[in-house]
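Students often ask what a holo structure prediction actually looks like on paper. The answer is less mysterious than it sounds. You provide the chain, you provide the ligand, and the output is a string of discrete structure tokens encoding the 3D arrangement of the protein together with S-adenosylmethionine.
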Amino acid sequence: MIEPDKLTREQFDLFRDFIYRHSGIRVEVSKITLVTNRIRRRLKANGLSDFDAYYRWLTTPGRETEIASFLDAVTTNETSFFRTPQHFAWFQEEFLPECVSRTAKLSVRPPIRVWSAACSTGQEPYSLAMCAHENTLRLAGRQVSILGTDISADALREAREGIYKQRAVEDVDPQRRARCFRTSADGETYAIRPHLKELIEFRHHNLMTPLRAQPFDCIFIRNVLIYFDRESKQRVVELLIQSLVRGGYLVVGPSEGIYDMLAPLVKKKTFLYQKPL
Ligand SMILES: C[S@@+](CC[C@H](N)C(=O)[O-])C[C@H]1O[C@@H](n2cnc3c(N)ncnc32)[C@H](O)[C@@H]1O
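The corresponding structure tokens follow.
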């Protein structure tokens, strides 16, 4: 089959608008070659030979599965365990003890609810689960319940599976690696241990839409909004704030570009914002 050339500007604009409508991501024109290459993979997977035919096919009603695969192909899922370590240090050393002491006098103590919004292949929620499990004593019987969501079905599949290559766990401290992963016989893969998996529910979710769930004590929103335009960022931020309990925290990635939209929250650290009590 002949490989089609680069997307024309008109074709690029059509796909770009489509991506924007479905995810809130505004792809820069400078990414035209990258987007072309990613869409080429989808043409190949569907046995199609030109971009226009693919676009028509993608926009025919009932193409939800292909739309999910298309969005997977054009978004970036890069992530790692304990990415930006000071966020996790805060989580275990300050946040967990604060939650415990805040509710110490209550007879019924609800689980501490944490949302990893845009969790990609799971490294972020699993890092949170590791922190929670390592602090079992400090938690004094309080449960931690973690929700990991993403728009990418492929990323979520990997997250649910929880099996990682050697490269992905290289930077995890060796003792923690031994505690949290089961190594395969050939030493090539590392599977998350069941006691950590139990703490997490993975769910498909587009950040541009309201999440149907109880509000959270803490939300991690990191390395995702960087790709969104202002209007979409604003919408996501409003929805995230609605999903926080009073006194709940928002942990913000270093390049989200949303600091000026966080006025309803109180800044606690460069990366940390709290919903007023
Ligand atoms: C670079 S990863 C960040 C993963 C993790 N939060 C971290 O900081 O390492 C960005 C993730 O955002 C997801 N994403 C992009 N647009 C989204 C949307 N509208 N709703 C939910 N997830 C989205 C992508 O599928 C990708 O997995």
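The chain has two domains: 9-74, 85-274.
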